[in-house]
Amino acid sequence: MVSPRVWAVLEGAPSAVATPYSPVVLVVEEDPVVAHALETLLANAGYTPVCTADGLAGLSHVQAGGIDLVLLDLDRPGGSGLALCP
Q1: Rounded to 5 degrees, what are φ and ψ at 25?
Q2: What is the pLDDT of residues 3-42, one digit of tens each?
Q3: Residue range(s) defining the domain that contains residue 57
Q4: CATH code at 35?
Q5: The pTM is what?
């Protein structure tokens, strides 16, 4: 089975190969089991997951750019996840 991330050039199509866009999803989750499950589900759905357990590290990722969506807990140790939202 060919990976959904692999694009083939169709017969008769121009020789250029399209580059698929894979949205980047930042997962801020302190529980490693939950983080791994989300990472696996997102990757299997065609997203590019970026995981961190620390809210401040997550904020740094967002500020650096390239993040399309953030998944985080509202009830985080040390404060609300909403505090990380700019």
Answers
A1: -115, 120
A2: 333 333 333 444 444 457 899 999 999 899 999 999 999 9
A3: 24-84
A4: 3.40.50.2300
A5: 0.70
Give the total number of structural domains in the chain. 1
For residue 37, count other CB atoms closer than 10 A to its CB: 13
Phi and psi at 26, nearest 5°, equal -85, 125
What are the structure tokens assigned to 31, written together? Answer: 């529980």
Q: Residue 10 domain-assigned? A: no
Q: Is residue 16, in this structure, part of any structural domain at all?
A: no
Spatial neighbors of 61 by CB under 8 A, at least 6 apart, are: 26, 50, 52, 67
* Nearest Cα to Cα of residue 50 among 75, 33, 68, 63: 68
pLDDT of 47-72, one tens digit each? 999 999 888 888 888 899 999 999 98
Do the domain assignments include residue 36? Answer: yes
Question: What are the structure tokens assigned to 70, written together?
Answer: 């953030």
